[in-house]
Amino acid sequence: xxxxxxxxxxxxxxxxxxxxxxxxxxxxxxxxxxxxxxxxxxxxxxxxxxxxxxxxxxxxxxxxxxxxxxxxxxxxxxxxxxxxxxxxxxxxxxxxxxxxxxxxxxxxxxxxxxxxxxxxxxxxxxxxxxxxxxxxxxxxxxxxxxxxxxxxxxxxxxxxxxxxxxxxxxxxxxxxxxxxxxxxxxxxxxxxxxxxxxxxxxxxxxxxxxxxxxxxxxxxxxxxxxxxxxxxxxxxxxxxxxxxxxxxxxxxxxxxxxxxxxxxxxxxxxxxxxxxxxxxxxxxxxxxxxxxxxxxxxxxxxxxxxxxxxxxxxxxxxxxxxxxxxxx
Length: 328
Ligand SMILES: Cc1cc2nc3c(=O)[nH]c(=O)nc-3n(C[C@H](O)[C@H](O)[C@H](O)COP(=O)(O)OP(=O)(O)OC[C@H]3O[C@@H](n4cnc5c(N)ncnc54)[C@H](O)[C@@H]3O)c2cc1C
What we know:
Layout: E1 2-6, H1 10-22, E2 27-31, E3 50-51, H2 62-81, E4 86-94, H3 99-106, E5 110-114, E6 117-129, H4 131-143, E7 148-151, E8 155-158, E9 162-165, E10 169-171, E11 174-177, E12 191-200, E13 212-216, E14 219-224, E15 229-233, H5 247-259, E16 273-281, E17 288-293, E18 296-300, H6 306-324
The protein binds flavin-adenine dinucleotide.
C-alpha cells in the first residue's frame, strides 16, 4: 500500500505522524513545495502560532471537546519530544472593558501587577511556536522515518491513482489531500480567511523579562525574550482578499498601547514586517475530513487552531483510512 500525502503544512504532518504511530512500515510519498520555499502559500509558516486552552471546557460542544483533548495531546507531544522552536509562555488575558465576557469564559479573574499597576486578568499557561524552526524540526523527524520519500513538487491534478506534479507523476493506492487554502474550489468550495500580523525582530529594551503573551480584546501580543521578537495579531479579514491591509492591526496596536504605554518604543509601525496567512474555515468552524472518492481523502478546515488540532485530526484521517480501506 502506497500513500501519497499532498501538502507540507500541519495537516499533512499530523497525518504522517499518525500513520507512523499506527503502522510499523508504511510507504509514503510526501509531496509539496519545500517548507522554506516562500514562493508558495503555507499557512502553517505564516501563523502567530500559540497553543492554549483559551478557557475551553469539556461537555459544551463537539468542537469544544475536540479542542480540549487536542490541547492535551499537543501538550503531551511538546513535553515528550521537546520540539525545537516551541517555548512555554505565560499568558495573561487582560481585562479592558470586557470583564463580564472574560469572567463568563474563564471563571474567576485575578489581579496581576505589571509596571507597578494592577490589572484584572485571567492567567493560563501556553506554548508559542517559532513556525519556521518548529516545522523544519517536525519535517526532519517525519521525513527521515523509514518508508517516507519527500518530493518538492506542486501537484496540478489528482487522478484516481496518480498525482500529476510540475516535476513528476506520483502513483498511489490512497492519497491524503492536505492542501490547505489551495484546495481547489472546483472539487469543493472552502471558506478562506486571510489573517495579517506584524513581527518586530531584534526588539531592544522591551520592558519585560519573560516569554509572555498578553491578550487584550482577544488579540495577542507575543514576546519571545530568547529571540527578541514581538508578534502582534492576527487580523481576521472577512473576505478572501490577500492584499496587505493594516487597519485591524493599527487598532490592535492602539489597544495595547492604551493598556501598556511603555511598549510604544518597541512597536513602531515603520519597523514592523507584515506577514499574511490564509486559514480555511469549515462549517461551524469545525475541521473536516471527507472522501473525495474512494482513494482520495481530504483533511482541512483547521481555521485558527491548526497547531492544536494537527495531532488529533491526523488520527481521525488514519482512522477513516483504516475504516474504509486499510489492509481490509
Ligand atoms: C494570522 C494567523 C494566525 C494564526 N494563529 C494560530 C494560533 O495562534 N494557533 C493555532 O493553532 N493556529 C493558528 N492559526 C491557524 C493555523 O496556522 C492553520 O490552521 C494551519 O496552519 C493550517 O494548516 P494546513 O496544513 O491545513 O494548511 P497549510 O499550512 O496552508 O498547508 C498546506 C500545504 O499544502 C501545500 N500545497 C497547497 N497546494 C498544493 C499543491 N497543489 N501541491 C502540493 N502542495 C500543495 C502548501 O504549500 C502547504 O505546504 C493562525 C493562522 C493565521 C493565518
